[in-house]
Design a protein that fits this description.
The complex is a heterodimer of chains A (261) and B (366).
Chain A (H helix, E strand, L loop, with lengths): L3 E10 L2 E11 L4 E5 L6 H8 L7 E6 L2 E2 L8 H4 L1 E3 L12 H8 L8 H6 L2 H20 L15 H14 L4 E5 L7 H16 L4 E5 L3 H7 L2 E6 L2 E6 L1 H5 L2 H10 L2 H6 L1
Parallel strand pairs in A: 3-8, 3-9, 6-7, 7-8
Antiparallel strand pairs in A: 1-2, 1-4, 4-5, 9-10
Helix pairs in contact in A: 3-6, 5-6
Chain B lengths: L9 H4 L5 H20 L2 H26 L7 H18 L4 H23 L4 H21 L1 H4 L5 E2 L3 E3 L2 E3 L5 H23 L2 H11 L1 H6 L4 H27 L1 E2 L6 H14 L4 H26 L12 H16 L3 H15 L22
Antiparallel strand pairs in B: 1-4, 2-3
Helix pairs in contact in B: 3-8, 3-11, 3-12, 3-13, 4-5, 4-6, 4-11, 5-11, 9-11, 12-13, 12-15, 13-15
The chains are: A alpha/beta (261), B mainly alpha (366).
Chain lengths: 261, 366
């Protein structure tokens, strides 16, 4: 049984079919990448998995169970964490507070105990702190722990968002363009982290990425999409050399050709 | 500048960041306790009024500053708390020590119930929706005349705890200490909220609903809880206002009060407990300051008295406009800057607190 299964998933916005009969399985412990030109439906698939949209057709299963009846806020509880393409951090909070929000899934206390801040709540807080301290160590965020997001540079924000998703302690991590806007060195860091997330933490990763160097360096399998349809599924090498993929890129958007080459 | 060496996670969890900060607050508390011995009994009444306003401001601050939901209907919760407290005492014969927390609870439940449909609205629509609550409350009080005595109003009995009476005129110092104690409890609850998961989920909703949801926060429920806690605290303030005023009717808690509350927390500084107190100080002391200024001017004017209708509202509006233009972070924001200037002297930079423009939300580098 695969960890995540999409079966004939279709989503239409009015007359536009954003996702057209897409089916793929993500196996436990692999890094699976979605690639494709702009408007191919990659981020829409992420939003379908996070239950922001409802598919008009098809089924999405996590760990064998359909998630189409699960409300959006319960997705994190199942063990699916995500980042956003345009960074959706809590701007008026520190890095630490942002990561602590990621621990919300593990909240055991309730409103009344928290208003009184009982010893139990304190013990829980210590446990949450310990967990996010591991994430801070993992992503080298020590220097930014008490800094407000509003003053942080773009690259660091990107990393904090990944950290917040890791604080959930997910089984499946959805990374929406983790390397967009990052320098070459930062992108290399991301590659190492994705590697470690998979190997050390045992977390399955599904990512959308345009940087084909990063994709071929870290992913086990790649799915190429264009206009909401599946083009090609296979190892990074197979997909890059698929004539249909090359045609889609050359035909649709020139700028990606040099990235691919 | 102080560098804090953190040796355990508790350093971040504790109420105070470091011992010096704790000592400053102990000093402030000592000042508050010593206040009745330093000022006249009239001024103690004003200080008591300030504390009641501070509780109301903290109530609204939880919703507006912490959770980012606007409300112009909080006078309604002041009214619910005030009427519930007095009616529980008069009709059911409950003592203050029971009726007061119950009044807060009733206002809180009312707030949470109203929030369920209301929080589906955002921004200015939410503000308009909550205005409707404030207006409706006025009418409900009149409709429920058998219970509330409508436009004739109700008299609040003296607060009595285990036979010890608290009266604004008979025992102003006792009332001051009682309300100071309640204020401290509310501040403690607010601080606890800020350092626990619920408070963080409030802030998460304020900054980004979509990612709060992705982190597992039930947005609709959390907003209702925020509304409930906010309305509950406001209800407590309403109950105290009733006792402080002695008599109240449907017009005591009108829409102007809602607006004043919202303006107070904006002037004080959104999102901080300090801001609630600064805002309360402005709103509670401004009418007296204007009255004193008027008396002062009268001494030099031959005509006798100066009566300018709406002077108070005009001055209040002017202060608000000035703050929004020159110090959007309120009095607390200004205070924080001054403090930082001294802490970093002589290294303070003028642009230190200038908000960086939001980063270009580009999809990727070319």
């Amino acid at each position: 049984m695969s960890l995540l299964e999409l079966e004939n998933v279709t989503l239409r916005f009015g007359g536009v079919t954003a996702v057209n009969k897409v089916s793929f399985n993500v196996e436990e412990g692999e890094v699976f990448a979605l690639v494709g030109p702009n408007g191919a439906g990659k981020s829409t698939i992420f939003n379908l998995i996070s239950r922001i949209y409802n598919p008009v057709e098809g089924d999405i299963r996590f760990d064998g169970k359909s998630i189409l009846q699960t409300p959006p806020h319960q997705i994190a509880r199942l063990g699916i964490a995500r980042t956003f393409q345009n960074i959706e951090l809590f701007e008026q909070a520190t890095v630490m507070q942002n990561l602590l929000v990621g621990r919300h899934r593990h909240r055991q206390s309730n409103m009344w105990t928290e208003l009184g801040f009982t010893p139990f709540v304190r013990a829980e807080e210590r446990r949450h702190r310990e967990a996010i301290e591991k994430v801070i160590d993992f992503l080298d965020l020590q220097a930014y722990r008490d800094k407000y997001i509003a003053g942080l540079p773009y690259g660091v924000r990107k990393v904090v968002e990944m950290g917040r998703a890791l604080a959930i302690e997910p089984r499946l991590l959805l990374l929406d363009e983790p390397a967009s806007g990052l320098s070459v060195e930062e992108t290399q860091d991301v590659a190492f982290w994705v590697e470690d997330i998979k190997k050390q933490m045992g977390v399955t990763v599904l990512m959308v990425e345009h940087d084909m160097h990063l994709v071929s360096a870290v992913s086990d399998r790649v799915l190429a999409l264009a206009d909401g349809k599946m083009l090609s599924l296979g190892t990074p090498h197979e997909v890059q050399n698929d004539p249909k993929v090359i045609e889609a890129y050359i035909g649709v958007a020139d700028e990606h050709q040099e990235v691919l080459a | 500048m102080r560098t804090v060496f953190k040796t355990s996670y508790d350093a971040d969890i504790n109420l105070f960041k470091h011992s010096a900060q704790r000592n400053w607050y102990i000093l402030l508390l000592a000042f508050a306790l010593a206040l009745p011995f330093l000022i006249s009994s009239f001024a103690i009444g004003e200080a008591t009024n300030l504390l009641i306003w501070a509780i109301a401001c903290m109530g609204l601050m939880i919703l507006v500053g912490q959770t980012g939901q606007a409300s112009l209907g909080h006078a309604a919760f002041l009214a619910v708390g005030c009427y519930a407290n007095v009616l529980l005492q008069e009709r059911l014969g409950l003592p203050f020590i029971l009726s007061f927390p119950l009044a807060g609870l009733i206002a809180g439940v009312a707030g949470a119930l109203i929030a369920m449909p209301m929080t589906k609205l955002h921004g200015v629509y939410l503000a308009i929706g909550t205005i409707a609550i404030a207006i409706l409350t006025d009418d409900f009080i009149v409709i429920a005349t058998p219970l509330t005595n409508g436009v004739m109003g109700l008299f609040a009995p003296d607060i009595s705890i285990f036979g010890y009476g608290f009266n604004r005129y008979g025992n102003p110092v006792g009332l001051y200490y009682l309300i100071l104690g309640i204020t401290l409890l509310v501040v403690l609850g607010y601080r606890n909220l800020q350092r626990s998961p619920l408070g963080r989920s409030f802030a998460a909703i304020r900054d980004s609903e979509i990612s709060a949801q992705a982190m597992g926060v039930n947005v609709a429920r959390t907003k209702a809880v925020a509304f409930g806690i906010s309305a509950g605290v406001t209800g407590l303030a309403g109950a105290l206002m009733g006792h402080f005023a002695g008599i109240f009717n449907n017009e005591t808690f009108n829409i102007i009060l809602s607006i004043q509350l919202l303006l107070a927390i904006v002037i004080g500084g959104l999102g901080t407990i300090h801001g609630a107190f600064f805002g309360a100080a402005v709103i509670a002391l401004l009418p007296q300051t204007i009255a004193m200024g008027r008396d002062f001017l009268n001494k030099f004017m031959a005509s006798g008295s100066i009566a300018i209708p709406g002077l108070e509202a005009a001055i209040f509006g002017g202060i608000l406009i000035a703050f929004i233009l020159f110090e959007p972070q309120g009095i607390y924001g200004r205070w924080f800057k001054i403090r930082t200037w001294f802490e970093l002297f002589p290294f303070y930079r003028r642009d230190m607190f200038r908000r960086q423009k939001s980063y270009l939300k580009t999809e990727r580098m070319r």
